Amino acid sequence: xxxxxxxxxxxxxxxGTDVWSSSDANASTxxxxxxxxxxxxxxxxxxxxxxxxxxxxxxxxxxxxCSEKNxxxxxxxxxxxxxxxLAEEVLEVIERRPEIRKISFIAHxxxxxxxxxxxxxxxxxxxxxxxxxxxDDVLDDISRGTICGLEAMNFxxxxxxxxxxxxxxxxxxxxxxxxxxxxxxxxxxxIFRRTGKHLFLTDNDDGKPPLLQRMVDDWGDLYFISxxxxxxxxxxxxxxxxxxxxxxxxxxxxxxxxxxxxxDSLSQKYPHIVYEEQSEGECMDVSLVDADCDVLExxxxxxxxxxxxxxxxxxxxxxxxxxxxxxxxxxxDSFLHSEGADVIQHMIDCFLT
Length: 353
What we know:
This protein is an alpha/beta fold. Helix content is 33%, strand content 19%. The chain has 12 helices and 14 strands. The chain has helices spanning 24-29, 48-57, 79-96, 110-122, 136-144, 178-199, 211-214, 224-230, 248-252, 295-304, 325-328, 341-350; strands at 2-4, 7-11, 17-21, 32-37, 62-66, 102-108, 123-124, 146-147, 151-158, 218-219, 222-223, 233-239, 273-279, 309-314. Helix 2 links the parallel strand 4 (32-37) and strand 5 (62-66). Helix 2 (48-57) packs across helix 12 and helix 3 crosses helix 4 (110-122). Residues 1-20 are annotated as: Disordered.
């Protein structure tokens, strides 16, 4: 166990790292579990900076758990396997900390997909709506459902490929060349194994639709969309450029025509946040979509945007660290990726506790 700068850290025997206030008074009132999930080939250390910042600035509110059950090569086993492991890990944390009443997720890259799968497994349907008249906000809470009996607060993804990686320019280092992208979709599993198939939507388990398509709805006993809906906020942080792993469109859950024009930030507090928007849930007839659009990708966009999303667009184009934007937006390393600190600050300032 470590104690530094008002933050206490403990490595758990069963996996993961817990971070909470070293002040007994603050720790005794903290009842909000924040689960931080790393990306592909990552580890608990990737969220160390953010975890410490959350606890320092919200000491009497949050307990942070940095997930460990999917570290390194285990992230190649598939989004569903990762999600199952994460769900089990969260259940263990909840059992260990009976004081917890609320839950939020903050997930980077493919970790956001694993988190979406995990909450689909952890979702508990709502209590029956009472017959008596109640205010709309109370009715909304009652009808929303929970995550393992906990109030679902913030679901935050950071550079997560929600629409997969197979579409044009969804993986920027493939240069947007259709031929290269097509070849990549057929060989990606050689490198990223089952997770690669899920990302490029080439999986076909027992004749089922691709996993990411199934995850925009409830599927059997997995309540993917109901679980997302249970959260009071859904937020997508995205790099507008220089992220060579995950493109802007897939991480911000937008169509090409919806990508906004952005300008340099004028904010001293958040110098790298260049655009913010709040979208309400919408319904669109897929048959009306332009013929040039990827039909499967459109199904993913349409399914996810039935719910409201906050979108926060980030640019490191003037930064010396811009070519590592995929890691900088998370502050994966507090020295190498320090310029992303304002993004973490923005998360904290907007966080519902």
